[in-house]
Specification:
11 strands, alpha/beta, 3 domains, about 300 residues, seven-stranded mixed β-sheet, Arc Repressor Mutant, subunit A, D-Maltodextrin-Binding Protein, domain 2, two-stranded antiparallel sheet
């Protein structure tokens, strides 16, 4: 039989396992009672105790017909074992504390006008982050998608929320939202009271986005008489509300004006499109507990 190596002062995983078995044996008052607690056979316990004694170089307990009893060395090793295992438990607790006591900054880039999305994933995840890490400083920048991508790539932003128009090799994309846009006019526009059946889009001035769109979405704008542009969705809303233009807006953004009777969707069953939004992070970026925690909340948010 291969003999156990003598203890050299360095605790290995094997040593810790043997000490945990020894602790249970002592507190159970013997091998037989320890079987149930440890869920291993008495023979396995006996082998473990023999290995521990061989490692330490002295006898820990008397066992036999006369019963179970600790030697003087056994009593001292038991006290040392309690100290060691307690220290390990405290170390684990302190490490877990570092994971829950979040500190630092979270720099986020967000495309304009996502705050009215009904699911509120971004908002809910930020609320959970603040609850878990009260000292975390959150910095939000409302900027165009291209600037968000560049900010994440150069490390100025930790995370971004952008429409999924392309896939850059240095970025990691995760699905966030699917957004529906419809064609709207305001209550002061001639089309507000007219029938959708006779709608001819080329007859009416329209506002087109001055930001990137997918080829599929561009086809919808090619049907319009684009006589104005806007660099963001808020600019589109401004022009629609003048009563001089029609234009596409996200359904969730336009809903407030629809409810107030100030806008209506034109032939919504025909003139609408979907935009996918993604969460972007930099591939191979340095580990950041604040970011990882926020992304976890974002993935779990309804």
């Amino acid at each position: 039989m291969k003999k156990s190596k003598k203890f050299t002062g360095q605790l290995s995983d094997i040593d810790l396992r043997l000490l945990r078995i020894y602790k249970v044996v002592v507190e159970s008052g013997g091998f037989s009672a320890a079987e149930v607690e440890l869920n291993i056979t008495r023979a396995a316990i006996s082998i473990a105790m023999s290995d521990l004694e061989d490692r330490l170089g002295f006898k820990l307990c008397q066992r036999g017909r006369s019963g179970f009893a600790l030697t003087e060395e056994g009593r001292q090793v038991y006290q040392f074992t309690l100290q060691v295992l307690s220290s390990i438990a405290e170390f684990r607790t302190q490490i877990n504390t570092l994971h829950t006591q979040l500190v630092g900054e979270l720099n986020i880039g967000i495309t304009d006008n996502l705050v009215t999305m009904p699911k509120m994933k971004i908002t809910n995840a930020l609320a959970e982050l603040k609850q878990q890490g009260p000292d975390v400083v959150v910095n939000i920048r409302m900027i165009p998608p291209n600037d968000i991508e560049l900010g994440v790539l150069d490390g100025k932003l930790h995370v971004g929320m952008v429409p999924t128009l392309r896939s850059l090799s240095g970025l990691q994309y995760s699905p966030l939202y699917e957004e529906r846009s419809k064609l709207y006019c305001s209550d002061t526009h001639p089309l507000f009271e007219s029938s959708d059946h006779s709608l001819d889009l080329k007859e009416w001035d329209a506002v087109a986005p001055a930001y990137a769109q997918t080829p599929e979405i561009k086809e919808y704008y090619q049907q319009l008489k684009a006589s104005a542009t806007a660099t963001d969705r808020e600019g589109v809303a401004f022009l629609i509300l003048t009563g001089q233009y029609i234009g596409y807006l996200p359904e969730h953004m336009a809903q407030r004006w629809v409810n107030e009777g100030r806008m209506r969707a034109l032939a919504p069953e025909k003139y609408h499109y979907e935009t996918q939004f993604s969460v972007i992070t930099r591939k191979g970026g340095r580990s950041n507990m604040v970011l990882e925690t926020y992304l976890d909340f974002l993935n779990r948010s309804s």
